[in-house]
Design a protein that fits this description.
This protein is of the alpha+beta class. The protein has 23 helices and 11 strands.
């Protein structure tokens, strides 16, 4: 039996009589994988060199073509296609059967096979570490039989990863991301404000989440989680101060720290231990006064807790009534039918509260209050409903909602997409204090009792934070000292003058400290170039300084800007930084002071967050690596998605 190659080699030696048809040389690449053999007279078939499967080729003068042969090779249906492991570079490649030939290998022009991706064990381990970090999976999942089976089904050559391996990979990912964060913080022009968010655990260990807040070179407020410190004795007075000291040293924040805010009701001694961190490293920054002992979110939660405690019996009655409706489909149907019959206009939907989140209790009370008419008549339509709240209960519910509503609205701003300003909370705290004073003077003893308890905490918060909040108000060109003077006259009465002077003196003292800052923090001449006349500048200051207004006094004396709703105070200072070169630096730092240390999702928590049992079983260094790296990776992913969206919008508008 002749092969195709022999047939073609003999064509030149045959006579015309023995070669009735002259065939052109076959150029298709399939002939590197097939031979043609005659199986019957005038019938030839193509045989695969890899699996020896035969295919139609020619019958008489009809030729079948090569498309079906290409499909056999290109689509991988040939059983001879094998996977070979390259031991030198540890890469797994899939290669179709290829005969040895001295001729260069040609590529198919149609229906080329999909390219095979090189397998890289190290890259896969890095991606597993990122997956565990970003989705908060347990490290031990790599040893779970289900995970091992799943990975083996995808890539049999992947080596199993131990707990220690993946722990090391996660820490390595954290260290890489940490270097990126450190590099991004190097060019920050202003100072840093720290918040301390305290978490507890069932093992009596404490965890302090330290976040830096700052304003970047584009005058945008930013924040970065820096540390998660485990404290073996969280109740110790020096626990928080040690955490701050370690953070300052580790991140190179010496001389750059401006304020510290924490949400844990620490002892006075713990607060005093933190003040030296500001004074020693930042000489003269108001003698360490910029320590906020309790953030606004925790203050609001504490006030809400007092309200709910005063009304706990009434709230239980309401909760039981809501539970009766929501835990039975038939009960809920009767409730809805009765509501329609009574034509109650409320669109509120009943829901049970999560007693760890005070906003859910407030929403439950509001909804129930609007539907009280239905509850009052429900026993006539639902014989299973036995104890409707009394008229007195509903009156108390309305009083509770009156106290909770302003707290809820103010705390909700902390969950807004933007960063709430201290000006907003200056107004909220001042208004709350005024409302409570009026409630105490009212005739309702139930309302007055609640208001008195709340006012004690508001007064304490105001004493601790009024200076910081007032300084932020002064740096808003719509208010300056005028709003401070107006609000303090309402709050302090005869003592208003003394308290206004405290704010005014504090602002001027801080400005003097910024004027005394050495280079490079102190601004040079416009353009950043020295002109050789520094001695002349000193002479001018010495001889005429008494007659010149400072930047601060010039700013305070200028007319207030109109109060427009969309006003961006940071952008205003960005546009006026050349007019107020030193004051703008001070404004940048003051306006970066955060009003809350609570994370976005935990604003309404009734108690401090608790670290889960799994993480408390890990080494402290691993816990910090997992939590910080997750925060950073998610920020990067969010930023990348935002950039892609912006790019798509720009392209669509082009």
């Amino acid at each position: 039996m002749e092969t195709a190659l022999e047939v073609y080699n003999d064509t030149e030696t045959r006579s015309p009589e023995t070669q009735p048809i002259k065939r052109r040389k076959k150029k298709s690449m399939v002939w590197e994988h097939f031979t043609i053999e005659a199986v019957e007279p005038n019938c030839r078939r193509a045989f695969c060199k890899g699996c020896n499967q035969s295919f139609a080729y020619s019958n008489g003068n009809k030729v079948a073509g090569t498309s079906h042969l290409k499909r056999h090779i290109a689509k991988g249906t040939c059983p001879a296609l094998i996977h070979t492991q390259d031991n030198d570079n540890n890469q797994l490649m899939t290669t179709p059967y290829t005969p040895k030939s001295d001729t260069p290998r040609r590529r198919y022009r149609t229906q080329t096979p999909s390219p095979y991706v090189a397998f890289n064990q190290d890259k896969c381990r890095q991606e597993i570490a990122k997956m565990i970090i970003m989705h908060d999976y347990p490290l031990h999942m790599v040893q779970h039989p289900g995970f091992i089976s799943f990975v083996q089904s995808i890539q049999p050559h992947f080596d199993d990863v131990s707990f220690n391996n993946v722990q090391g990979d996660c820490v390595a990912t954290y260290l890489t991301e940490k270097q990126n964060v450190m590099k991004s913080l190097e060019g920050i022009p202003g100072r840093f404000c720290l918040t301390l968010d305290f978490w507890t655990s069932k093992l009596t260990l404490g965890y302090v989440f330290i976040t830096a807040h700052f304003i970047d070179s584009d005058w945008k407020i930013q924040k970065k989680l820096l540390n998660v410190c485990m404290e073996s004795y969280p109740e110790a007075d020096e626990a928080l101060s040690l955490a701050v000291a370690n953070c300052v040293s580790e991140w190179g924040l010496e001389g750059k720290l401006f304020s510290v805010t924490f949400n844990h009701p620490a002892s006075p001694s713990a607060v005093e231990n933190i003040r030296p961190q500001l004074c020693i490293k930042n000489p003269g920054i108001l003698d360490g006064q910029l320590v906020i002992g309790n953030c606004v979110a925790r203050t609001f939660s504490s006030l809400a807790k007092d309200v709910l405690e005063k009304g706990k019996d009434v709230i239980k009655n309401i909760r039981d009534s809501v539970k009766h409706v929501k835990t039975s489909e038939s009960h809920e149907e009767r409730f809805i039918e009765l509501k329609e019959q009574l034509q109650v206009p409320s669109e509120k939907v009943l829901s049970l509260d999560d007693q760890t989140q005070w906003n859910t209790t407030y929403k439950m009370l509001v909804a129930a209050s609007e539907l009280k008419e239905v509850f009052s008549c429900l026993d006539t339509a639902d014989p299973d409903y036995k104890k409707p709240p009394s008229a007195e209960d509903w009156r108390h519910v309305e009083a509770l909602c009156t106290f909770l509503k302003p707290l809820f609205e103010a705390a909700s701003t902390l969950q807004s997409t933007g960063n709430p300003s201290a000006v907003t909370f200056f107004h909220e705290v001042w208004k709350t204090q005024s409302d409570l004073s009026r409630a105490i003077a009212g005739e309702d003893p139930y309302v007055a009792g609640i208001a008195k308890t709340m006012k004690e905490k508001v007064d304490k918060y105001w004493r601790d934070c009024s200076l910081v909040l007032a300084m932020a108000v002064v740096m808003d060109p719509r208010f300056k000292m005028k709003l401070v003077e107006f609000s303090f006259s309402k709050i302090f009465g005869e003592d208003a003058g003394k308290n206004i002077k405290t704010v005014d003196d504090g602002i001027h003292e801080l400005f003097s400290e910024y004027m005394a800052l050495p280079s490079p923090l102190k601004p040079t001449s416009e353009g950043g170039k020295a002109d050789g006349l520094s001695d002349f500048d000193t002479y001018i200051m010495e001889t005429t300084g008494q007659n010149l207004k400072s930047e601060l006094d010039q700013y305070l004396d200028e007319t207030l800007l109109p109060r427009v709703q969309e006003f961006d105070v940071l952008d205003w200072w960005k546009q006026n930084k050349l007019k107020y070169p030193t004051l703008s630096k001070m404004a940048r730092d003051i306006l970066s002071i955060p009003v809350s240390a609570a994370a976005f999702d935990y604003v309404f928590d009734m108690e401090p967050r608790e670290m889960d049992e799994y993480k408390t079983s890990l080494r402290p260094e691993t816990v910090e690596a997992l939590i910080c790296a997750r925060e950073w990776l998610l920020e990067n992913a969010s930023s990348s998605a935002a950039e892609q969206m912006a790019s798509a919008i720009i392209k669509s508008e082009a």
